[in-house]
Every structure is written in structure tokens, then in C-alpha cells.
Amino acid sequence: MFKPIPVAIGLRYLRAKRRNGFISFISLASILGIALGVAALITTLAVMSGFQREIRDRMLQMAAHATITADGDVMEDWQRAVAEAYRDPRVAGAAPFIETQALLTGVRKQPAIIRGVDPEAESKVSVIADKMTQGKLSDLKPGSFNIVLGRELATWMGVTIGDKVVVLTDIRATPMGAMQQLKRYTVSGIFEAGYQDFDRGLAVVNLRDAQRVLRMGDGVSGVRLKLHDMDLAWDVARDLALRLKGPYRITDWSTDNANMFRALKLEKTMMAILLSLIIAMGAFNLVSSQVMLVTDKQADIAILRTLGLTPRGVMQVFMVQGSLIGMMGTVIGVVGGILLTLNLEHILRAIEKVIGVQLMPEDVYYITGLPTQLETSDVVSIAIVALVMAFLATIYPAWRAARTAPAEALRYE
Fold it and tell me: Which residue segment(s) compose the domain that 376 sits in?
């Protein structure tokens, strides 16, 4: 009794049994359509967020959060840079590195990135030592000229532990003319990072061996940093470069991989737009059901108008009724989408057990299973979009109801 009249009548229409059962069916289809679209969109975005997180985590296990390099080819005072980095409480680890492109030759040839590292310091900025499937990172001793290869790189080159690999790192001008700079390394280990760019394109050698081969003296390419909070990577690297007071260049994990993250974000956005069409279909069903309801309630509308309800009030009645249908579909979809996302891994295993086929085998995919990450912002955004679509779907039928002429509607009653 304390509700506004349009709200009370709208709720009454929502609960009332329809004279035309088909209208009730269309309303139910609208609710289910919106719920299905919301649930599908929540689950899909959660899976895509999960894959993005998995790719990012695997990448950052091997890559630095931030990197400081000299403006020239060689960074001479890297010991000072490492010491200065550890004075910052935001830094968890710092390690020098040398990085260059090279052509590796085993049974077959393959270009790759050669990274020179100090095995002890490298464990503070990456988990490559934990990713070793054969051999140990500590086998990269100075003067041993051992090399550690990614699993796919070693497989493609046709080499294994103990085999020799010829590395062409550079072509230098000498008094005798242009000379290829070749060095033979012994494969002492193989790692598997679970990320193709590293497994297929990275080889690791000792820092001292790289300095000797590349004739860098005691210099390095730069210093890699691992932080307690990787979102502060750019700020920490900038502060360190300013304290060093030299011509240094800084990069962080987001700028080093900007194209990949931009592509993943675009893919997620486009998927959200496409799946929103399912919600739009439910909203179109809502338009149909509301138009049919307005036609069915012509006499009721006329009576309400004669009792003093304004056209605006009539419009509010049907907007309330339609919006409640959209709200019901959205709530059901949000709850269903969250439950589906939380149990998606179990559902996948059940499907694999029923059909007897592994949908994501380990020997084919880097990531097995379906990693998910529910983000509150995504769920809220999807719910708002669904509610807005449902509200917009009620405007035309409600406007049409408001234009009903009482005399015309009651002529044949």
C-alpha cells in the first residue's frame, strides 16, 4: 500500500496469470535469454582473464620485472647499479645479464637469444633453475663454455645433454676482413618454462663466458630487477636510473611485451562485444513480450486512464514490469555464471571422462585445463550492461501503452 501506484500495478502484472499463455512463454524466454547471455559472458571473460594471468605469470617467471641498460652497448658500472638496487626496499632481487642474438647450429640451425647470466644471482630474478628438466643451472661455470637450452629449441636442433652446439654471435671487421665470431658450447642442461618464446628462443650461458666471447671486458648489457610488487616496475627502474646519474635506458615487463598484452586485451574486448549479442537477443524477446502484453492489456490501460492515471504513469507501469523481468534474468545469469566459472574445471574433467578424450593434452598445449579468474569489475560491468539493455527494451512498449486512447480501447468491450 505504500508503493507508488505505477510500481504496485507493475508488480501486480508481473505476478498475475496471463490470459494469453504465449505472452508468459515469451517473458520466460526473455528471462532465460538474458540469464544465458550474462552467464556465458561472465564465464568466457573469466576464462580469458585466467589464460592472461597464466601467460603473464609464466612469462614473468623468466623475464625481469624491470631492466636497466646503458645508453651504449656496454654497462661498465653494473656492480654499483646492483648495490644501489638492493638499497631500495621495493626490490626483491637484481642480477647482471648479457643478451645478444645468435645463430645456433646442431643437427639443424635455429636463431635464438643468448643470455649470459651469473647462475647464483639469476636465481634471485627468475625461476629458471627450478624449470630445469635435465642438468642444473649451476653447471654453467666460468670457463666451462656450457650452454642451457629451452626444451623446444633443443628438440628442434636435435641435441641433448653432452652434445656440442656452435654459436655464431656476431660478424666483426678485422684486418683480415669480416670474420664470423664462432664458439662451440657443450649442452649441459635443458629447461622448460611453459612459454614458447623462451622454450623455443632462449639459450643461457655463463656471464663470464659471454663476456669473453663478445669481448665486453667486465661490462654487461644491463641489470635485471625483480620487485615485490611488479606494478611498480616502471617507477622503481626510473628512480634507480636517476640515482645512478647516467645515460641509462629503462624498460619494464609491460612495455617489453606491450604488443602481446594489447592483443590479449583486444581479444577479450571483442569477445565481450560478440557475446553481448546474446544478451541483446534476450532484450529483443523482452520487447516482443512487452508489446504483446500492452496489446493484451488495452482494456486495463483504458480503465486506468479513466480513473486518472496519467500517460506517464501508464508508461511507468510497463517500464517497471519489463525492468523487473530484466533484473530477474540478470540476477539468475550472474549467479549461474559465477557458479559455472567456479566449477568449470570439474565440468571439463567430467566431460573428458564421459567422452573418453582429453580435450587439452599436455603434449599439445602449454596450458592444460581451464584457468579462470573472476574479476569483480567484469561481473559488475556485465550486470550493468544487461540491466541497461533490459531497461531500453521497455521504452518502446511503454511509450506505445501510454498512447492508448481510452475510448478506442473500450469501444468493443
Answer: 5-57+260-409
